[in-house]
């Protein structure tokens, strides 16, 4: 007798982490149910359900695992009241929960607070239901040409043939590839040691902000030039750029952060589910929207 494949329910499946996760689930033999607010093309291995956290379509009473790859606060709120049973729940949060908690920007502190509350709510709901939640917190995500940092930098640099950074942009970063995050979600789902824990998921290499940007520009063709300007000059340029509708959301907090080390420890994730992210080797396709 053959047993039917395990069912995974995936939220945020159309996102930059969700898409490679779908691919990995299919290869691993899962039957996938994926939720989207948009109409999506059905495939043999993935059944798309149309809906949102506010308007949830009919779901099975039981699945083997739920993956949350969309906004953590909406997911945590849904899970608190959900009727569906799932022994494993894997949800993506963000290292912004650490980074933005003491920001000078009130909106950023609010983001950190919402992420923190969502994590606490998830763990409390899971404990009450006798289920096991794992929260995964990526650092700066890249790889699918859909991220708001490196792809945006590449796009601006392509358009202008150059890119500018303040000379203070030397804080260390650990960009993480979307497919390493998808692999981590699947590995965590299978790892008992990850039950009830949250993990920071940095990329496999730590490098200065300016070096990270230089590598991105270096993989473009032709490679735009990077100019590093004294901070007051950079700030003055930002004023001019804003008058032309560029860099409107480049806040003082974001500029200050370029000089800060945002470095996280991959060891707990490596120990508990073999997390092994790749070094940062950018290629143009990673920053080119298809
Ligand atoms: N991007 C980063 O640099 C980064 C860094 C750290 C952590 N993360 C976290 O990693 C997770 C996945 O990131 P991502 O960039 O892949 O996510 P994303 O693209 O922002 O969102 C993933 C999907 O979630 C759905 N979604 C978005 N907003 C929604 C809403 N208000 N209600 C219901 N569904 C919504 C959308 O799917 P449909 O339109 O198909 O419904 C979207 O394609 C998120 O939890 C994010 O916070 C991201």
Quick synopsis:
The protein is 37% helix and 19% strand. It has 290 residues and is of the alpha/beta class.
Per DSSP E runs of 2 or more residues, the count of β-strands stands at 13
Distance between the termini: 44 Å
Question: What is the typical, i.e. mean, pLDDT?
Answer: 95
Strands ordered across the widest β-sheet: 3-2-1-4-5-6-11
Q: Name the CATH superfamily assignment of the largest domain.
A: NAD(P)-binding Rossmann-like Domain
So what's the CATH class of the largest domain?
Alpha Beta
Q: What's the main sheet like?
A: 7 strands, parallel
CA gyration radius, whole angstroms: 20 Å
Describe the overall structure.
The structure is a single chain. With 290 residues, this protein is of the alpha/beta class. The chain folds into 2 domains: 7-138, Rossmann fold (3-Layer(aba) Sandwich); 150-170 and 208-257, no CATH class. 37% of the residues lie in helices and 19% in strands. It is built from 10 helices and 13 strands. The strands form 4 sheets. It has a 7-stranded parallel beta sheet with strand order 3-2-1-4-5-6-11, with helices on both faces. α1 packs across α6 (178-189). The longest helix is centred in the middle third of the chain and has 24 residues, at 106-129. The chain is globular, with a radius of gyration of 20 Å. The structure holds NADP nicotinamide-adenine-dinucleotide phosphate. NADP nicotinamide-adenine-dinucleotide phosphate (NAP) is lined by residues 12, 14-18, 36-38, 52-53, 69-72, 74, 92, 94, 138, 140-141, 147.
């Amino acid at each position: 007798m053959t047993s039917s494949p395990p069912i995974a329910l995936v939220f945020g499946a159309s996102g930059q982490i969700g898409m490679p996760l779908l691919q990995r689930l299919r290869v691993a033999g899962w039957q996938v149910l994926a939720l989207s607010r948009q109409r999506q093309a059905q495939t043999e291995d993935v059944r798309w359900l149309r809906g949102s956290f506010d308007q949830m379509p009919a779901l099975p009473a039981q699945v083997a695992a739920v993956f949350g790859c969309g906004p953590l606060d909406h997911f945590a709120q849904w899970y608190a009241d959900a009727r569906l049973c799932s022994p494993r729940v894997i949800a993506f949060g963000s290292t912004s929960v650490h980074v933005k908690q003491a920001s000078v920007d009130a909106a950023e502190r609010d983001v950190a607070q919402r992420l923190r509350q969502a994590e606490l709510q998830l763990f409390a709901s899971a404990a009450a239901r006798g289920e096991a939640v794992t929260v995964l917190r990526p650092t700066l995500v890249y790889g699918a040409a859909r991220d708001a940092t490196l792809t945006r930098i590449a796009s601006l640099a392509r358009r202008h043939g150059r890119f500018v950074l303040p000379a203070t942009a030397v804080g260390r970063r650990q960009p993480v590839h979307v497919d390493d995050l998808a692999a981590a979600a699947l590995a965590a789902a299978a790892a008992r040691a990850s039950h009830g824990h949250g993990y920071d998921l940095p990329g496999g290499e730590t490098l200065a902000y300016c070096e990270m940007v230089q590598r991105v520009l270096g993989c473009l063709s032709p490679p735009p030039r990077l100019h590093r300007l004294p901070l007051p000059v950079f700030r003055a340029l930002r004023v001019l750029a804003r008058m032309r509708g560029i860099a409107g959301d480049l806040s003082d907090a974001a500029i200050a952060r370029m000089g800060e080390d945002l470095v996280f420890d991959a060891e707990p994730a490596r120990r508990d589910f073999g997390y092994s992210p790749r070094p940062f080797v950018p290629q143009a396709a990673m920053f080119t929207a298809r």
